[in-house]
Amino acid sequence: MNGEILGNTQDLAQRLIAKTYQKVTIGLIITGLVMAFMATFMRNFIMSMGLGTSLIFLVIMLALMFMLSRSISNENSSPSTANAIYYTMTVLFGVSVSPLLVIYNINTIGLAMLATAVMFGGLTYYANHTKKDYIPMSIYLFWGLLAAIVLSVVAVFIRVPGFYLLIDVIMLVIFAFYIIVDTQSVKRFANQVSSEAQLEKFSTLGALNIYLDVLNLFEILVELIGMGQNNNN
C-alpha cells in the first residue's frame, strides 16, 4: 500500500485537510487537559517555573522538531513515530503554557478561547476558499516574526508605555496570516503524496504548523484581553 498512488490531487487535498485538522483538534485537547491538570494539581511547580525552565523547554522543543523533520523526510521511518513526536510536543506545550491559567482569571481565558475559535474558523474558511496564493508570504512572515521577537526582548529592558501592546498586535497579525499560509500549504502537500504513509506524515507536519499558529494566537489574545481587563479595573 505504501507505494500505491492514492488518487487525484483534489481528493488527496481533502483527505490531508481532514486528517490534519483531526490531529490539530486532538493536539489542542491534549494541551488543554494538561494545562488544566497542571493548574489544578501542580500549581506550586507552575509558580516556580522561571527562565531556566523555559530555556530547557525551548531546547527540548527544538530537538523534537528536528526529530519530527527527520522522521518525515526519512522514507523508512514509520508514520507512528512522527505522530508520537507530535503528541509528545502537545503535552510539553501544555506544561509550558499552563501558567496562563494561574496568571489570568477564568473570564479572560474564556474570552480568549472564544476569540481564538472565531478567528481560526474565519481564517481557515478564507484560506480554503480564496483564489489568492498566500504561501509566498511565508518568508516575510518569518522575518516579521523574528523582528517581533527581537522587539519583545528589547521591551524587557526598555520600559515604553504601550510597547508590549504594539508587539502583541503585530504578532497577532503575523500568526493570523500564518494560519492562512499553513492551511494552504496542507493542500500543496497533496502534490508530494503518493502513499498512505506519506499522507500520514504530511498530515502530522501540517497539524504541527497549524497547532502552533493556534496556540500562539491564543496566548496573544489572552495577553491582550488581560491588558484590557486590567485597564478597566
TrEMBL record:
Membrane topology term: Multi-pass membrane protein
Pfam family, one: Bax1-I
Keyword Transmembrane: yes
Protein name, as recorded: Bax inhibitor-1 family protein
Source organism phylogeny: Bacteria, Bacillati, Bacillota, Bacilli, Lactobacillales
PANTHER family with a match to the protein in the record: BAX INHIBITOR-RELATED, PROTEIN LIFEGUARD 4
Keywords on record: Membrane, Transmembrane, Transmembrane helix
InterPro entries for this protein: Bax_inhibitor_1-related
Highest taxon listed in the record's lineage: Bacteria
Family per record: Belongs to the BI1 family.
Record organism: Fructilactobacillus cliffordii
Location in or out of the cell: Membrane
Transmembrane region(s): 24-46, 52-72, 84-103, 109-127, 139-157, 163-181
GO annotation, cellular component aspect: membrane
